[in-house]
Amino acid sequence: MLYGRKFTLQTDHKPLVAIFGSKNGIPIYSASRLQRWALILTNYDFDIQYINTKSFGQADVLSRLIDEYPRPTEDILIANISTDTECYINSIFNSVLEPLPVMATEIAEETDKDPILSAVKKCINQGWPRKNEDQQLAAFHPKRDAISEIEGCLIYGQRMIIPKSLQSRILKTLHIAHPGIVRMKAIAKEHVYWPGIGKEIEKLVHQCEQCQGASKTPAKTLLTPWLAPNEVFERVHVDFAGPCSDGYTYLLFVDAFSKWPEVCKMHPITAKDTVEVLQSIVYRLGIPKEIVSDNGRQFRSHEFSSFCKEFGIKHTFTPPYHPMSNGQVERFVDTFKRSMKKCGQKKNWIEETLLAYRTTPHASLNGHSPDELFLGRHMRTKINLVHPEGQKISSNIDKEKFKKFQQAHQQKMSKQFNTKHGSKLSKFRPGEPVYLLNYRLNKTEWLSGTIIEQVKNSPTYRVKSPSYWTRRPPACKSIEEATPN
């Protein structure tokens, strides 16, 4: 009714008039508060006018015209409260009291009710025994010189010793903003103490769904390398790279034994096109025994499954959202993308990149090149022209010696990885409750689940939550069993 109209505002509260006047003599905090009120009132067009309280009857008329009335007689009801009703009232009282902060007076009262702390107070007043024989005092006897009593409360150093009945409330107070274990312990060391508080803090954080749902990924699990293959095409790895800067996606194919790569431009990248590209490689180079891929829709399609059955190929999936498990091809993906940045303007840059990669000695191949292991000979390149015609470049590979080198090289790389990342071995039991990472719907969160089984010859586990998923230990962590406080 007042918005958009000019009106006169009458008040008997004189400080309000000063909102539109000088602020001289008004304390800073008062001026700030008045200015905030004034900011709200700027939406209205009005003049403010002070009226003395004696002449200000318009607003006070209702309170001034109240007649005296007789006080009604009160009925006094005497009732007996049953035990059940009393318990119910106590439960309501406790539920209301639970979120309230713990005060020193309450700690003093509960300390007197606590049998262990009462015994500690008695020892403080009457003297500690030289040798403790009471198991209840075993946790306090070594600290007896640092324990004192102030106003009925026990203090260890500067920390209040909390009786058993208040410990759960103190833990909730410490965890009110969901800090981690380290921060909670740091706060506790400043203020409160009871035997075993550190372990109870750890248990509380591990059992807190909000903390576990937003926690970081645990330490990486120990790197488990693939078994070194004995021959060419015993195992190959495939993956997609792209869309790249040229707008295309490429299918990359790497032999695990020789590191021999193949690259095929894809557009579109349907399951049918993927199968056709792999068929062309198979018809040209032969049939691999095993293909390793991620969980992309092309590789999980009926067409790809039929292709593997037709050619007798074993198909192995890597754990979801864990590209490191397909490291053989992932390393070449990085090499391929870097080469595109450097040479992508050339017409035949893909062919040049493949030729250079295939003929370059690799440290992981003990100084041999992919072509030497894959073809059994060195491919002739432009650099070979520096040699005279009569000079022969031999290729002698001792396969047994080479296999031993591969195994030693893998162990060395695994050790370096585990040391760098602080990796540790994670073991779970069937039926064990766990948290597992959910990468779906473009977000990362921890969900509760149950271990079903460990995949054979793999560090991967099958987990139920809410459907059957496969997860590696870094995306899986234990839930500590809840025990009553």
TrEMBL record:
InterPro entries: DNA/RNA_pol_sf, Integrase_cat-core, Integrase_H2C2, Retrovirus_Pol_polyprotein, RNaseH-like_sf, RNaseH_sf, RT_RNaseH. Its EC number is 2.7.7.49. Keywords: Endonuclease, Hydrolase, Nuclease, Nucleotidyltransferase, RNA-directed DNA polymerase, Transferase. Pfam families: Integrase_H2C2, RT_RNaseH, rve. Residues 225-378 form the Integrase catalytic domain. Transmembrane segments: none annotated. It is an enzyme of class 2 (transferase). This is RNA-directed DNA polymerase. The lineage of its organism: Eukaryota, Metazoa, Ecdysozoa, Nematoda, Chromadorea.
